[in-house]
Fold this sequence. Notes:
GO terms for molecular function: catalytic activity; molybdenum ion binding; pyridoxal phosphate binding. A hairpin with a 2-residue loop joins strand 7 and strand 8. The chain has three helices and eleven strands; from the N terminus they run E-E-E-E-E-H-E-E-E-H-H-E-E-E. It is mainly β. It has a seven-stranded mixed beta barrel. A three-stranded antiparallel sheet has the order 4-3-10, with no helix packed on it. It has one domain (1-11, 18-139): M1 Pyruvate Kinase, Domain 3 (Beta Barrel).
Amino acid sequence: xxxxxxxxxxxxxxxxxxxxxxxxxxxxxxxxxxxxxxxxxxxxxxxxxxxxxxxxxxxxxxxxxxxxxxxxxxxxxxxxxxxxxxxxxxxxxxxxxxxxxxxxxxxxxxxxxxxxxxxxxxxxxxxxxxxxxxxxxxxxxxxxxxxxxxxx
Length: 152
């Protein structure tokens, strides 16, 4: 089980996302109003709170949304989940579609720190079923086929 620490959205691509208290996640689309939502395989981006905190401990000055992540979750190591893993939160059902993302233009974080965590720690998912999420909601990793809870 994990807990949503932050929900972040942006209206334009290429800008840092801003934290919001709640969001409506639309089936086969992503977070309503987010520039990265759409009919493709990277509808929602997820990053573990632990990965961000470890990066901060190495001297990074980053705020929620700086990596372009939609959901920051405490207690789930997203990078360890295989593609196809399903994640549930309230009525929302996500399916991991991609692990990591190449940093083509090397973001500002890369230029400052010499690295960025999104290529190894960022996870992307498709929305199989939509619904509302709020900061503080619990998120559960489901077993790949049986639909039973798996340890996170």
